[in-house]
Structures are given as C-alpha cells and as structure tokens.
Design brief:
five-stranded parallel β-sheet, globular, two-stranded antiparallel sheet
C-alpha cells in the first residue's frame, strides 16, 4: 500500500505546521497539547519543543489538566459515518438548519468561522478538518488537514454550555491512541455519544469500490487496470478496517454510549430518522426535516461500463485515447451507439462476475460482521438482499463485447469531433 505520509527533507512536518500558525492559535494548541496529544502524537515528537512558555492566562489554567471534569454542555455527539451510509445528506441538513440545531442546544465548530466572517476552504458541514486533528492522514499541508481553530471553537461551545455535534465519516479510520485523545477532548462535556451507521458488508464494499474508481483520471492507470471484481475479491474474506464492525470494536474500550443505526432500515427517510429518532433531543430540527420533502441523493454510484469498454478498446489498439477529454468523448459516443442505435442498456450486455467461491466468502463475511454489530440478527434479510443484488457485483465483460462484429465496426469507423 502506498505510504500517504508526507516526508519533508528539511523540516519536520509538525514543526513546519506550527511555524505557520498565528501566535494566538499556537498558544491555544499548546494549551490543548498540555492536556491531550492530537496531531503531534502522530509524528511521535514532543510538543514541548514547539511551544513557547508565554501563554494567555486562560490557556495556562488548562495547561496540564486532564479535562476529566466537564465544565460546560451536557452532550457531545460524534457521528462517524461510516462512508457510504448517507453522511453527506445528514451533514447538508446540519448546514441548512443550523439555527434549528442551535435551538436544540447543538453547535458545530465550523459555524464559528461563518459567524466571524472567515472563509476557509473545506471548513464546512463535513467536519473532516476537525477530525483530521485526531485522525491525521499524514499530509498536514493538504486542504483537508487539521484546522486548529476548530478545537478552540469547540472549547468555546462548552463554555457556552451547549452541546457539540461533530459529523465526519473520516473518523471511521480512528484507532487506538487517537480514540483515547478524542475521548479526552470530548470529556469537556458531561456525556459523549458516538453514532455509527451499519451497511451490509458486501453492499458497503460494492459502494466503496464504485467510489474508488468513478472519479479516476485518464492518467491514473492503476485505477483503470483494477475494477470492482478485484476490489471485492481483495476484501471478500478480510475485514475492511473502516467498516462498522471493525470501528465499533475499536471504540468499545473507550466509549460507553455507542449507537449503531441500520442503514437498511427504510421505515423513515434517512435524514428524518437521524434527526427525529437518533440524535437526542433534536425536536426543532426534526420538525424541519419532516417537512423538507424528498432529498436529492448525493454521491451516487456511477455505471462505468462504457468508459471501461473505451479503455479496453484502447488497450486492444482499436482506438487511440490520450487524455481525459478524448476518454469522455469516446465514452459518450459508445453510450449513444449502444442505447440509441443498438437499443439496449448496460444491463443487457455481457457480464463478468465473481466466482462462486468468492461470492460465498463475501456472503459469509457479511453474515459474520452483521452478528458482531447486531448479535440477534438472523441474517435472512441480508441473504435475501444478497441474492437480489448479485447482478450489481458484476462488471461489463469488455473482452467478450469487443469480439462482437458491431463493436469492431464501431471502433473501426470512429472519428473524434475534431476530425469531422
């Protein structure tokens, strides 16, 4: 696996990070690091070498404390996703109904930037720039790196005696000492509740695999050489570390109140269920989302059959493609030919599917992981869904399709719009 950690020859990344902070922000973080080790612990260096000795009075009070005694609001709620379980829709509602959330006693650190008239990229309802302070990806100089001011605004929320709401599916990668650090930070509130969504393992992997490949660029050759089948095979009998079962197992030693929500429960729309039944005492926000009507699904799966066919034809030297623009044009013309001339969709084309032994392994893993999260589940609904969704665990058989005479003719006669 590719090492995502940032390596700087001349500077330690944390030192570089600190050198670019304002004195006030640096003082706030140094005060926090006296109580908890956040970003710094990821790089295994001492915060003492980075911090000055002169702190504002209120920072000196907290420096070295354990934060064990709550000083403000009643409840800290941390929604950790996981990925591909509707987190974006929930987060969008918190942005749309920030005032209702406040009436319910919830504040979010990112809203303080808006209050203070500060615009910073990626400081918004998907609170990844907050979670990165606890679960650093390694590259602290990216747009999604930790924004230290958010930690300070969290402290301000507890001083106002309000609850804090954090939502970031990037928390699903949290582990060990990082969980301990998060718990220590949240101990400023009297209680902490962690909310995690569960999705059947095979369905989760299918959606994650689609996410992995759907935004690929033409230059990312490895993402074109791989496909959903290789992705599913890789994890069919191996526990994906960010799946609900693994995440909950890591959280249990540190948090007593963990709420696991079944993504497949369709008794209510997902956002209505979250704000009306899952998030404690969110009556005002619940009323808002009950009346919002149908919510457009975001981050949907993408059918990559046509682009896969284009890439396969290029590999067989049936066509030349050299950039994203040409790939897009070929893909669109393949789609038009298939659906308007031949008169079929990708569902009617030749498929390549997983072998039975891999399907069995995937089903068994799904059943086992469901029982870890819901011990009383009988698995019948999962098995039924697995049978119904099997066709979605297949991909287009590009080799078989390209052997058809009509597709050989299509590519032999193909011309780019610039050649017309």
């Amino acid at each position: 696996m590719k090492d995502k950690h940032l390596h700087l020859k001349s500077k330690n990344p944390v030192s570089f990070f600190f050198s670019n902070l304002s004195p006030f922000t640096k003082a706030v973080l140094c005060g926090l690091f006296g109580a908890i080790n956040l970003v710094v612990i990821h790089y295994h260096i001492s915060y003492l070498n980075l911090c000055d000795s002169d702190y504002p009075a209120f920072i000196q009070i907290s420096r070295g404390s354990s934060l064990a005694e709550p000083v403000g609001g009643e409840l800290a709620v941390v929604h950790m996703g996981v990925h591909k379980t509707g987190s974006t829709m929930i987060q969008d509602m918190t942005m749309r109904y920030t005032s209702s959330m406040l009436k319910d006693g919830y504040e979010m650190p990112w809203t303080f930037f808006k209050r203070d008239g500060i615009h910073m990229k990626h400081v918004d309802q998907n609170q990844v720039t907050f979670s990165e302070c606890f679960v650093p990806s390694g590259d602290i100089l990216t747009d999604y790196s930790c924004v230290p001011e958010l930690l300070f605004y969290g402290m301000e929320i507890t001083k106002r005696q309000n609850n804090i709401f954090i939502s970031a599916e990037s928390f699903s990668a949290i582990d060990g000492e990082q969980i301990k650090n998060l718990g220590t930070y949240m101990s400023q509130w009297k209680k902490t509740q962690v909310i995690v969504y569960y999705r059947h393992y095979f369905d989760y992997l299918r959606s994650k695999g689609n996410q992995e490949y759907k935004n690929r660029n033409f230059s990312e050759k490895h993402l074109w050489e791989e496909n959903l089948l290789t992705y599913l095979t890789q994890f069919s009998d191996f526990r994906y570390p960010a799946h609900t079962s693994a995440l909950v197992g890591r959280l249990r030693p540190y948090f007593d109140d963990i709420v696991v929500v079944d993504y497949h429960d369709k008794s209510k729309p997902l956002v209505e269920q979250f704000f009306c039944d899952v998030l404690p005492n969110a009556k005002n926000t619940c009323k808002e989302v009950e009346n919002v009507g149908e919510i457009e699904t975001t981050n949907e799966s993408v059918d990559m059959s046509y682009s896969n066919l284009a890439y396969a034809a290029m590999k067989k030297k049936l066509i030349e493609i050299s950039n994203d623009e040409e790939m897009d044009e070929v893909t669109e013309k393949i789609k038009a030919y298939n659906e308007e001339i031949i008169g079929i969709t990708t569902k009617d084309m030749k498929k390549k599917c997983l072998p039975e032994e891999t399907l069995d392994a995937l089903l068994n893993s799904s059943l086992e992981l469901q029982l870890e999260v819901f011990p009383n589940a009988n698995g019948d609904q999962l098995k039924e869904m697995f049978e119904e969704e099997k066709s979605k665990l297949c991909i287009l058989d590009t080799d078989g399709t390209l052997e058809e005479g009509r597709w050989k003719t299509f590519f032999a006669e193909f011309k780019y719009s610039s050649q017309s």
